[in-house]
Fold this protein.
Amino acid sequence: MASTNSTQPVNKWALFGFTTTSEERIGPGPPYTHPALQVNLFFRVFLGIVSLFVTWVPARLLWRNGEFGGTVLCVMLLVLNLQTVINALIWRDDNVETWWAGYGWCDIQAYSNFALHTAFNISLFEIMRGLASKVALDRAVKLTRSERRRQRIVSALVIFTFPVIQVILIYFATFGRYNISTLVGCDAVYYPNWIFLVFYILPTPIFAVGAAYMAGVTFYRYRKIDKATRDVARSQDGVAAARQERVRKKLYFMTLFCIIVVLPLIMVLLFRNIVQGAPWNLPYDFYALHFGPDPLNIYFISFTTSDMMDFPSLAISFIAELAGIAVFIPFGTTPEALNMYRKLLLAFGLGYIFPGLREEYVPRPKRGSSLWSSFTRSLRGKGLLSSITTFTRKDSLLPTAEQVSLTSRPDRAPSSSVTQPRNMAMDTELVPIQYPEKTAAGSSSVSHHNPWPDLSAAEIDAATAQVEAGSSHRLRNPFPFPTLVSIAKPPVRFPSLSIP
């Protein structure tokens, strides 16, 4: 039975930072837990489960969209947070007598934990590098299939090179088999020499600085593109402007996350690791580290209770859990992602408690609140939304044509009041809209889109001739807004073309 604090012998393993071994199992006496430890356990498990739930959907969407770096980041978070939850539930107090020695489970984690953290940090750099290349000003076309495959290969080499090296060097950079700590679980025990410093400590800060730099480059390039297209987007009744605003917010969040959160945190951990391992000049003897007396042999398993752990050691697992929740902000708030979350909740049976989950989420468009947006909506009936849902160009931010009522539009002949016929296709550089023949069925199916009756062909010709007679240059849109003469009449919605 574990001895009490008053009779506990001197801890001979304290020099190495351990409490006891898997054979001796001499630890602190009862009570084996306390309120602070229980609060840590609750939030560790709760945040871990929440992080697993919210990270699963972005991982699927990023993989489906071919975002290799983002997929790796989400997968690393899923693995790390799953390990955090399981380890916290297994080793949840300081009663070392009942601790499982972790055979097999801890052997895997001892070789993979550091590599998983490194892959997570490098994938963040790869995400920002990919975004910087996508918003580059020297290319405006999509990548070919071979280019995308080559890009994935490069991303894989960037992300996994150092983690693979770390897995290979684990046997040479550690002593003992592994260590088990309260709530934290399993981890390797590294020997503080130049191998650990060069191949384990320094790579992550270097890539963190690179990620912060790429984040700044990405946002700078996007701001230049945004300034050039902002006026065009705002002229489209706020639909494209709203989409640009969402992209801007996501890039702004990711940039701030890399520069203000990730970079300072990694630098603090770098300083802590360098101080703990100083002076980093210990001699390296492979045989002495792996086949010497305890703890310097490959069979030694150590236990560390919470009284031997500092705050960073107990709190470092929360970084991956909070990062998983942070991934939800840019990648888990799209309509497709929200519907996937809804299906997951339905799979858990929550549809019986919350019937609203059975209805598919369809976002409502946000209309612009400016005076110009209100004015243009009143002139165009239902506004731009109906035109986008009826006829849009694939993968285009801007609509190409609006829905037009066919109830009273006869076949038009060339206007006799215009001195020189205008070529609509040449003026707008778009294919002219082909109107179907007027039928009773067509009239009843689309007439509700226009609350105002259309003008006759003669009235349209007269309005066109009047505008052309008063303008010295060629207008790109032959149907402008109503003039002061016709402002007393109900606004008429004409077929409108927008230049992409």
About this structure: The first strand starts at residue 20 and ends at 21. The chain has 16 helices and four strands. The two ends are 79 Å apart (CA to CA). The CA atoms of residues 479 and 494 lie 7 Å apart.
